[in-house]
Specification:
Length: about 350
């Protein structure tokens, strides 16, 4: 496997427990005080739940303009892998934006277009500004994309030491890094079939982003960076993986909602296949809430290149239960549902 490491030192003395800063591109949040931003729904009796009780998930069907243009040009539906490639490149653009600067530039473009009586140009600039405002709200104000406090709460109290972690559909690998900080000394394998995820989404993840984790030597919190972690990135289709049942944790973030019902069992089998006996499957999906529907509507040109559902926690948990998992923890974080499961 190809091990990815950083050679430069990135330790920042201001990154102490309790630190918080809103940068131009993202938030850094090392606060460990309440609220933990996790709403527990583990009380649900999954064995008595049925689809008559919960209905089926909401399907997002407002497609990206790039998807529609591709399909017009090629005369066929965009393949799943092609859609994932387009999504990764499009979504990655958002993380690179200096949002305060670009908002100012968009406002200037609007005024310039209006003064020039360029109504079409003004309309495009307004649309761009709205998208920037939505992204700013979601990523820099609410910190709902990475959501470190919610994910730390979801991942806490797992009975593992120095775990072997497999991340399916890893994209930028954020959640594996958070797990490596909370359960240090382990090893993570990130898998994605788009090489761009290895080279750019993970490869260019901010080196100075601090992860709040644990120090086994003292029992206290400790700050980690990507360079502190033992991570390999494998570019492959997760269906082709040859691992055995050798991982303490198999995690996916926003994966199973891309599988229509007739393929959901395959998605869950991918998690089961590589787990050690007693290992944990960790899954999240985007929440079915008004905020999420608005986000995928306004941001459709960045986000909507393939099949996607929005679920509530009961729907997500019922899928897991029907596919042979016992649910140890279930609940909501800012933008996602989250499950901690074991094979039944």
């Amino acid at each position: 496997m190809d091990s990815t490491t950083l050679t430069n030192q990135v330790k920042d003395p201001k990154h102490q427990v309790g630190y918080f800063e809103r940068l131009a591109t993202h938030v850094q949040d090392l606060r460990n005080t309440a609220p933990d931003l996790f709403e527990d729904a583990s009380y649900i009796d999954w064995s008595s739940l049925s689809w008559d009780d919960v209905n089926r998930p909401y399907k997002v069907d407002r497609w990206a303009e790039g998807k529609k243009l591709w399909e017009q040009e090629h005369g066929e539906r965009m393949p799943v892998k092609e859609g994932w490639k387009h999504f990764n490149r499009s979504f990655h653009q958002l993380f690179q934006k200096d949002i305060p600067k670009e908002k100012q530039e968009s406002r200037a473009d609007i005024w310039q277009s209006l003064l020039s009586m360029d109504i079409h140009g003004a309309g495009e600039a307004i649309e761009e500004l709205v998208q920037l405002l939505v992204w700013n709200k979601v990523h820099r104000v609410e910190d709902a994309i990475w959501d470190p406090r919610g994910k730390r709460a979801l991942f806490e109290d797992l009975d593992v030491e120095k775990p072997e972690v497999l991340f399916l559909g890893a994209a930028d690998g954020y959640e594996a890094m958070q797990l490596m900080a909370q359960y240090p000394g382990g090893h993570a394998v990130l898998v994605d079939y788009d090489k761009f995820c290895k080279t750019d989404r993970f490869g260019k993840f901010p080196a100075q982003y601090p992860f709040l984790g644990n120090d086994p030597a003292t029992g206290n919190h400790k700050v980690y960076y990507r360079e502190d972690m033992n991570i390999d990135f494998v570019v492959d289709d997760i269906r082709n993986l040859k691992y055995g049942k050798e991982f303490d944790i198999v995690v996916s973030i926003g994966l199973i909602e891309h599988f229509p019902d007739e393929y959901k069992h395959e998605a869950f089998e991918m998690h089961r296949r590589f787990l050690k006996p007693g290992g944990y499957a960790i899954l999240t999906t985007p929440r079915n809430q008004l905020k999420s529907k608005a986000f995928y509507t306004v941001m459709s040109d960045y986000m909507n290149y393939g099949y996607r559902e929005l679920m509530d926690i009961r729907q997500m948990g019922l899928y897991a239960w029907e596919n042979g998992f016992d649910i140890l923890r279930a609940g909501y974080i800012k933008a996602h549902n989250g499950l901690i499961c074991k094979v039944r």
